[in-house]
Amino acid sequence: MFRGSEKYEQINKLASILKTMNKEKKIFVSYNWDDSQVVDEIDDFFLSIGLPIIRDKKELQYKSSIKEFMKKIRDTDYVIMIISDSFLKSANCMYEVLELVKDQSYKTRTLQILLPNAKIFSPSDIFNYIEYWKNEFNNLHTKIEKIDIPDGNVLVKELKHIGNIKSSIGEFLEFLTDENSLSFETIKASNYEQLTDIIGFKPFQNTNRPVSINSDVYLFEIEKDRWIAFIGKIDNKPYEIYVGKEGDWAFPEFENIDKNQSVKLVLDQYDKESGRIDLKYTNIKDSYLYTHEGINRVFESGEGSNYARIIGSLLQANANIKIILNALDEMYVREYDNPYQWKDEIKKILLNYL
Fold it and tell me: CATH classification of 23-199 is 3.40.50.10140, yes or no?
């Protein structure tokens, strides 16, 4: 969603906008950099629902103290912990664990996600990690004994840290195996429901949304691709946005829509749990009422879907259009050949509601 080296600077700017729209909750993610791809996906999801997470790549500046950043783990509401083999063998990751367990409530605040290479459920698996840290301690201890090193030396401090890990790893693994830890694939397949339910956070939404709301319809073209945007309105103010290529998913041909008749976005009454939104319009060719089921499926995949979801979240939070335009300025959708033009077209549409 964001480009190159500017990605996290842009995320921080957008995060400051989104935080003003919702009650802020501090979510820290603890992980090994080997698992950055998984964390990127989690990061993008939480940003898309208006809840940016605290992450080293976003928060740490040049010459910042890494240790001081790690201590922030104690001052957050929840910690998403990505448990992998590399995590359990990382001194830095285990430093964060040791900081977290200083808080007696850490078990209720920790949301652990297991990756396939973390083998922790058999006695021999647990033994392997305990032995790993015992060997790390003994190896460093042997090296330190060979030379005269003062107590304040960085190696002695590291030995003490590894000693603390060695003493605590068994208890931490017992906590992980005693809890109902889920795999990343399971949590991702449920759209991170297990995490958001515990956190108590829901995307911006008006639970009193009418079953049917009127929609404006817009057509724009980018390099011969034709796009349709539907802007659902409540009290004549924009409330929802669905954007897709003409003819894709549940999107009809623009010329088939009779703009002189009402175009509706209807919450399906037979499948309320899924929140399915159907498009209903009069076909100008035969004057019949047509239904395109599940127009909200446009949100199922792709960066563009996250992009539109953020805009929709801000609309539902009754954000000022100028704030949304500000958010648009900070965003970049790299999956399109001409992302700037795509974004500019959306801005032109929203300007109609100033």
Answer: yes
